[in-house]
Design goal:
This protein has 242 residues and is mostly helical. It contains two helices and no strands. The relative contact order is 0.07.
Length: 242
């Protein structure tokens, strides 16, 4: 009996030790579980914090991306507007260049016409000088014809005084008087033609002078317009380069 009791006591002692060990292990396990739970909670909190920061960063990046897209769209719109403006300016410059070329051609044509009118002006001056010289020569011819008439009359008178002896001379004097009369009529007709020619020449000379002045004024206007157009083209080119 004593040995059995001792065995029971020893068994109870071992069982107590075992229960105490299990209790200690349980407490240590609970402590470890609590530590693991705290660590897990901490890690989860840190992960949530990081996720929140990442979400905020993603929202910020998305906002920046939207802003960049809006800026790119605005810049594209501005670039399209600039391209349209450049195209319009290029078209306007081309039209202005064509206009300048047309003005240059018109100026060259006017210069040619002006040179032609100047040549006509000089020719009309020479023609008027020739007409004046022809008037003087006709006056000299008319004076000579008048003297011939006077001489023929005097010869006829002297032949009449001479009687039969001067009959032949009287016939010659009559023929001379007839020729002188015809010459006088031709001289008068020539003088009238010269006067009409003077009127036509003077009118033509005035028309040429007026036409030359009009062409000179037109040429000055065209050259002024060409200068203004070249200035505008230079300014447009400078603005395009700027």
């Amino acid at each position: 009996m004593g040995g059995a009791a001792l065995a029971v006591l020893m068994a109870l002692a071992v069982l107590g030790v075992h229960w105490r060990a299990r209790a200690r292990w349980r407490r240590e396990g609970e402590a470890q579980d609590a530590a693991h739970a705290a660590a897990l909670a901490k890690a989860e909190a840190q992960a949530n914090e990081r996720l929140g920061a990442c979400a905020h960063e993603i929202d910020t990046l998305a906002a920046q991306n939207d802003a960049l897209r809006a800026e790119l769209a605005q810049r594209k719109s501005a670039a399209d507007a600039l391209d349209a403006a450049l195209y319009a300016e290029r078209a306007r410059c081309e039209a202005a260049q064509q206009r300048a070329a047309g003005i240059a051609d018109e100026a060259a044509r006017l210069r040619h016409m002006s040179a032609t009118f100047e040549r006509w002006h000089e020719q009309m001056i020479s023609l008027m000088a020739q007409n004046h010289d022809m008037h003087q020569k006709n006056q000299e011819l008319s004076s000579i014809v008048s003297h011939v008439l006077i001489v023929s009359l005097n010869a006829s008178i002297e032949a009449a005084r001479a009687g039969a002896a001067g009959r032949g001379f009287s016939i010659v004097a009559g023929e001379v008087r007839t020729l002188a009369t015809r010459s006088q009529e031709l001289s008068k007709s020539y003088r009238d033609s010269l006067h009409r020619n003077d009127l036509v020449t003077a009118a033509t000379f005035q028309d040429i002078q007026a036409g030359g002045k009009m062409i000179a004024a037109s040429l000055a206007s065209v050259e002024s317009l060409s200068t203004q157009l070249r200035t505008q083209l230079a300014q447009a080119h400078a603005e395009a380069l700027a």
